[in-house]
Design goal:
The chain is an alpha+beta fold. It is about 50% helix and about 15% strand. Helix 6 runs antiparallel to helix 7.
């Protein structure tokens, strides 16, 4: 037989970033309507109660219209509901369930404090203890776990779920082990069968009564924050009621911290992948060696100079996101600590170290982790900058060498062309000289063998003078070219 508790409550503190997108801005209020319909089979339509533009300059304000607020609500600015109409039906549960919805704007976000509970009194009579299996009836289809819904809003920050209950007369408030077992049983009853219940994290005493926390940050991807709080003394409930707004703020700042750290882990994964790509790029540079780059290698490095700056920009943006998440955690951790101090001032001589642990330990751990990530990844940014500078210098030097070699080859080719033209021109000129000189050979003055006459033939003299003139002119051209090349080399 399942254990019993008295007047159990389920509190859902859910938060979402404001958005102007028409299809998404009312998601939280529509979700509230869906829960009420599933649990109490009523059409609530929370939107009819809301004024989203109410007191725009007020950072924290209830969004319920002033003339629509319920006087009997446990917190000012909330609206109540119950299933009293359904109880008249023979097909409905005989156990009455009451609740309230407190929608509000908190800075850049919306919040919803949603409550379902079994009343402590009905018709001025104390209600009976109820089986903890009632908790499952209050969570059909796991509808109260908003961040477990696959259709949850992309701007959803998270939620804190608190199950409170008074201990029955048979339970000993001092038996911590028994209360821990009872808390486990409450969670088993609350969640559907075979559901992976969040692991136990720690337990403590808050406002004089035992409280148990579930959900580990080591399981950050599927993290759930759930508290089971057993009221042993009236002072516990009174203190809880007196600190309602401060506790709501605490859970809001807590949700922002956890969301920022979750997002930083995704950025960490992306940055780590980019860092691996950077290392691969650096390793590919080693294959080029120290020798003169070929035209193909120069083209490859030139392409890298176009892609690596974008890689560097994307990588730098990832580091900037990590910095932003670190700052978000720091700001909201300070806000959280401020609310803890406010609670300490409101309730003197109370041990609230259970609430302090998050800001003192968890937030500090989150910031240290991100700082360590930044220290590791900043090396990659420096490595990438050096690689870009190295490639740019290498390409510039080798391209200059390649251009100079190409220019020299061009000059050699042009010089060879000039020599060829000179040779052809000389040959043509010599042929012309030969042809014109041959006219000097006549019958009256025939060409005789060398040294057979005391005076050389006019043809022989013409040829010799032409050859001598050609040799002298060629020497002048060749020498002038050498002097010009030497001058150009000195200029370089």
């Amino acid at each position: 037989m399942s254990p019993k508790v008295y007047a159990p409550n389920i509190h859902v503190f859910a938060f979402i970033l404001q958005t102007t997108e028409e299809k998404e801005k009312d998601w939280l209020w529509q979700t509230c309507d869906q829960i009420i319909h599933k649990v109490l089979h009523e059409n609530f339509n929370l939107m009819q109660w809301l004024d989203l533009e109410k007191e725009p300059d007020n950072p924290t304000v209830s969004l319920i219209k002033a003339d629509e607020q319920t006087e009997v609500a446990p917190i000012e600015g909330a609206v109540t509901f119950d299933n009293s109409c359904n109880n008249s039906s023979t097909n409905s549960s005989k156990i009455s369930i009451h609740g309230f919805a407190y929608p509000l704007r908190l800075y850049d976000s919306y919040g919803l404090w949603f409550n379902l509970h079994r009343p402590e009194q009905e018709n001025c009579q104390k209600t009976d203890d109820v089986d903890i299996q009632l908790l499952r009836q209050l969570n059909p289809d796991n509808c109260l776990l908003l961040n477990g819904n696959h259709n949850s809003h992309q701007n959803f920050l998270g939620e804190t779920l608190i199950i409170t209950a008074w201990l029955s007369s048979e339970q000993d408030p001092q038996n911590h082990e028994a209360l821990k077992e009872l808390a486990d049983e409450c969670l088993k009853a609350f969640f559907p069968q075979d559901y992976n219940i969040p692991p136990f994290a720690r337990s403590a005493t808050l406002f004089g009564s035992s409280i148990f926390e579930y959900g580990l940050f080591t399981q950050l991807t599927n993290y759930r924050h759930i508290l089971v709080w057993f009221f042993s003394y009236t002072e516990t409930e009174e203190n809880f009621d007196s600190c309602q707004q401060e506790l709501l703020d605490l859970f809001f700042f807590r949700a922002k911290v956890v969301k920022a750290f979750q997002q930083s882990r995704q950025v960490y994964q992306d940055a780590n992948q980019e860092y691996s790509k950077i290392e691969e790029e650096i390793q590919t540079l080693e294959k080029f060696g120290d020798e003169q780059l070929t035209a193909e290698e120069l083209e490859q490095l030139s392409k890298k100079l176009k892609t690596l700056p974008k890689t560097a920009l994307d990588y730098t943006n990832l580091l900037r996101y990590l910095e932003a998440y670190k700052n978000t955690i720091a700001i909201n951790a300070r806000n959280y600590a401020d609310r803890v101090q406010q609670i300490r001032g409101m309730i003197e001589d109370e041990d609230i170290s259970f609430l302090e642990k998050f800001s003192l330990e968890n937030c500090a751990d989150f910031q240290e982790q991100i700082q360590a990530d930044l220290g590791y990844f900043h090396y990659g940014s420096s490595l990438l900058d050096k690689a870009i500078a190295s490639i740019r210098g290498r390409v510039a030097i080798d391209k200059a060498k390649s251009d100079r070699l190409a220019e020299e080859k061009k000059e050699i080719g042009e010089r060879n062309l000039q020599i060829t033209i000179l040779a052809v021109g000389s040959a043509i000129g010599s042929a012309g000289i030969m042809a014109s000189s041959y006219a000097l050979v006549t019958k009256e003055d025939p060409l005789l063998p060398p040294f057979s006459t005391p005076v050389p033939h006019r043809f022989s003299l013409s040829i010799c003078y032409s050859l001598l003139f050609g040799v002298v002119l060629g020497m002048l051209i060749w020498g002038g070219d050498k002097i010009w090349q030497s001058y150009k080399n000195r200029q370089r």
